[in-house]
Structure formats: structure tokens, C-alpha cells
Amino acid sequence: MERSAARGLFLRLAEGCLKMEWDSFLRPCVGRMQAYQPGLREEQIRELVSGAEIYKLSSNESPLPPFPEALVAMSEALGRLNEYPEGSSHRLRAALAEHYGVAPEQILVGNGTNELLTLIAEACLEPGDNVVYGWPSFVVYRYSAQLLGAEYREVALGTNGAFDLDALLERIDRRTKIVYICSPNNPTGVCVSATALDDFLRRVPRQVLVVFDAAYDEFVTCGFGGAAVLAAGGATVTPTTAAPAPNAAARGIAIHAAAPPAPAPAAPLAYFDGTRPFVVLKTFSKAYALAGIRVGFGFAPKPLVEAVERVREPFNVNTVAQAAAIASLAGGDELERRCALNAAGRERLEAGFAELGLKFFPSQANFVWVEVPDAEHAFDQLLRRGIIVRPFPAGGGLRVGVGDAAGVNRTLEVFRELFGGSQ
Ligand SMILES: Cc1ncc(COP(=O)(O)O)c(C=O)c1O
Q1: pTM score, whole prediction
Q2: Which of 127, 137, 237, 291 has its CA 20 to 30 Å from the CA of residue 145?
Q3: In a mutational test of the pocket of ligand 1, which residue from 56, 59, 138 has the highest number of ligand atoms less than 8 Å from its CB?
């Protein structure tokens, strides 16, 4: 055996022994977990894209910078970084309470909604418990259950791309502690309807905590999945009426953009009364364009807020983040202006996909799920042309973020190049 080959073998054996040794230290449920995979960043593909403008449309971020008021507040806060943050985020809670008309003691704040999901799981779950949610959806529901040694039950979405609340009810049993509802759902962008949620809340057992993840709620502009009429340059376009892909249900997802009457989407805050086990989670990461500073918030009954206070880190929301969030809430009509821009870009994307004969879920979020013949190949081809999206090969689709006007133009240009004439 050559020296280098022998050395390679030795290193692999040593690594294997080290891993076995470490496995005995780690909790088995942690050994089974996977690290979160963020979307690709611009610098990771710069070499691949010779000279072309790069559009990062893979992480559902805002294409715009933080609100002007937030930028000022953040730079002022920098001078106070010698001190620890205000530990209970008192001023931020007060601002959220006033803004949403909810009592301060019913408000959760965390280092992103991500942290709040983990904290709620830590407060509620024990090994042997289970959580139920639709799939595909936000992977942190799975991770937070795994972390606590709880079972996670993933239920295929309805053919309209929304959570199938009846199917979720069927998977609930004695050991179910949490049901997550993501609406608009990441990655399909479709909302659950108010009537479906009414019915679900009437039937869900009282001992089950319902966590309504409304991370994209600000972007909702109209009826849910199937809100069919899209304006494109003054023209009226109906999304593709093609039947769902033949094996789509087996893959846990189906495209159904035919235009049923659009039921009103569930407005989650209308269901929050502070007594029933119902939590609404929201974030400053998306519509407020503060993903990099990490602030999530939510509304929960007081006993759950108190439990989260016990399990959270002492200073979980930093000084700059608190200042940015407070200033953003006072940002006047900037939020509406940006959400209108997002809706216009989303409609243009969807109209473009419809013209190409591509199937997609009419979205209420800042991204659109579109089905393509080979998601991995399409992802790669888009990447080489400077468009970073998120592929979901198992579901046969791509999640395409709504960029700024230039981003939407370029995305459509590349989609036309790749898919024009091939459908
Ligand atoms: C559905 C959903 N919930 C929660 C989050 C987490 O948001 P945050 O940035 O506040 O942690 C995301 C992030 O992409 C998301 O898609």
C-alpha cells in the first residue's frame, strides 16, 4: 500500500474511533439530529457566476434594508454595548403590547422566532411526547422536537398547499403536546382558511398546545391558495389549471393552482384570547427586514410566557435588536408600502410562471413555490445565472423568493431562458 493511502486509511480509522467515543457523550437524540442548512450566500457562488448580478432569493429575506428608523436606532444603540441588554425586553414588550393590543404579560420575545420555537418545546416536551405538523414546512418544528427526545409526526399538506387541519387532527393522540400550523406555509406560501381553523379549534383536544406560526402574515393580501386572478401588466392571468402531478401526493405535496373560490385566510390574532392553549408567533426577520439582528415575538397565555422566561437565556434579545424592533414598529406606513411592493413582485412572478405553463401555488408570502421538471438541475442552472433559490427535490419544486423589481425581472428572464418552450 502506498504511504499516502495508508495514511488516509489510518486517519479514517482514527476518525471512526473518535466518533464512537463521542457518541457515548452525546444524547442519542442529538446524535440523530442534522444541523440546520441555510440557503447559499452570494459569496459562495461568486466564482460560478462570471460577472452576472447575483440575487439571493433562497432565505425568504427582504430584498430591502431595514427601515430608516431602525438603522438610526441601531447606530444609536451601538454606544450602549458596554452594558448588558435590558433583560426582559421591557420596552419592546410594551411597544408590541400597544401595537397589537395585547397585554405585555402575554408577549413572548426571543432571538428570532426560531429561538421561541425551541424555548416553547423546551418548556413543554418530554421524551415520549409527540408534536404534529404539516409537511413540507419549517424544519425547526422537527429539530426542536428531536432536541427534547420527542416524536415528530409530519402530515402531508392538502392538495392546495396548505396545512390539512383534518389530517392533523387524525394524528393527535394522548401524547400529543403541540400542533404547529404554519400559515402562510413555508415553502408553499399558502394559508389555512378561517373556516378550517374555526373547525380545527372546535375539535382539537384542550390538552394540545396549538402554535400558529405567522412568520409571513404581514404579506397576506387576499384569499388563500387559489386566489386566482393575477394582474400582469394590466392583463388578467389565471394560474395554470393543470392537474396535480401524478405522483405528487406520494411525494407529500401537490400543485393545485386551479382557481377555487378563495376562502378568507385565518387571521391568527383574532383567535388569541390569552386563555386557551393557542400561541401566535411572528418575526421581525421578514416584512420588517431585520433577519440579521434576530428578533422574534409572539402572543401566548401568561403561564406559558412565564415558563419561557424560566428556560430562556438571561439576555436573549440584544440591545441593538431591541432598539431596531421598537423603531420598526413606529415606522409608519413603511410596512404597508413594502408589503404592497412584495405583492406586486409576487404577482409578476406568478404571472410569469403561468405564462411558461409551470405549476405553482398562488402564494400569500414573500416567495413562490413552483414545480419544475428536475428541481436539482433547475437549481444548478439558476445558480449559474446568478439566481439563488431553494430546491426541494423530494417535492419536485423550487421556492423562489420575491426579490426587488430587478430581481423579479432577472428571475423571469432566466426562467424564460430555461423553461420557455420546454413545457
Ligand atoms: C415559517 C417560519 N417560521 C419561523 C422562522 C424563523 O424566523 P426567525 O428569523 O424569526 O427566527 C422562519 C424563517 O425562515 C420561517 O420560515
Answers
A1: 0.88
A2: 291
A3: 138
